[in-house]
Structure formats: structure tokens, C-alpha cells
Design goal:
The chain is mostly beta strands and 154 residues long. The strands form 3 sheets. A 4-stranded antiparallel sheet has the order 6-5-9-10. A 3-stranded antiparallel sheet has the order 1-2-8, with no helix packed on it.
Amino acid sequence: MNPHPTSCVALALALIVGGCATEEMPSKGSLAGSGVTLTFQRIVNLNGYQAAELTLSNRSPLPVWYTGNTAENPVYDIQYSSGNTWEDSGDKWCVMGLESFQLASQQSVTFTAFVSFDERAARGVRVGVLCSPQEDYKAGVGRMYWSEKFTAPK
């Protein structure tokens, strides 16, 4: 039995709207004791631009997968603090050329995230990476891991 086209459109819209909504989420890297963490390290200067250096670590007994341009350049989301909620930055990635990368158990990868250190970042910012226990990213299986909240350099 095939679903009605209207049902498919409604589901797609629900996913888009739900994915854009912000919610009160823990700002610490490890969620629900999974063993995966995303940790803010420091602010670095790359070619005249400030960027956040972060480390994605897998302390779980199983590998996890993430998407990126290279293993050291995962796709990430940026959110800015707005009191008890988080606002999406609106920055989007080009999906051409992206691949899945495995982060083995007890391994880490360090990368830089270009953050707009403007008035929004003064309230606090966090970076998130979507990880999945499966390489093929079945719907609803992945989990976003967020760094702790950090602020723009003074």
C-alpha cells in the first residue's frame, strides 16, 4: 500500500518545521550517557578569521558515523543562546562531495568551526555534529551532539 501524496507532503513539512524549531537542550557534549562528546577546546585564528576548535570523541564501545568533507571536517550546526532556548544560525552546508566517516570506539577527531563572533555569540554559542550508529543514516537513528556553551573572545 502506498501512502497518499498529501501524507508525504505533511510528513516532510513536519520534519522541516520540527528540525528548525529550537528547544531547551543540555549544552554539555555527552547526551544520555552515550559516550559521544563534542568539546570546545579554544578559539584559533585561521587566515585572519577566528574559528572554534572542537574535539568529537567516541568513548562508547561501538563506532559512530558522521558526515563531512573529510574526516577532519565534519558537517556541523551552529546555534546561539537566547535565554533558555537556542536559535539556529541559518548557515547551511553544500551537500555535494560529502561522505560518511567512521569514528571508532575510543577515538577522537579535532576540527575547526567557523563561527560568526558577533553580538549573537556574546550571548553564547554552541556547535553540534550529527552522529549515527549506522553508516547509512536511517531516518530517526542519528543524534545531534552539542558542545558546551562558549562565548566570543573579548
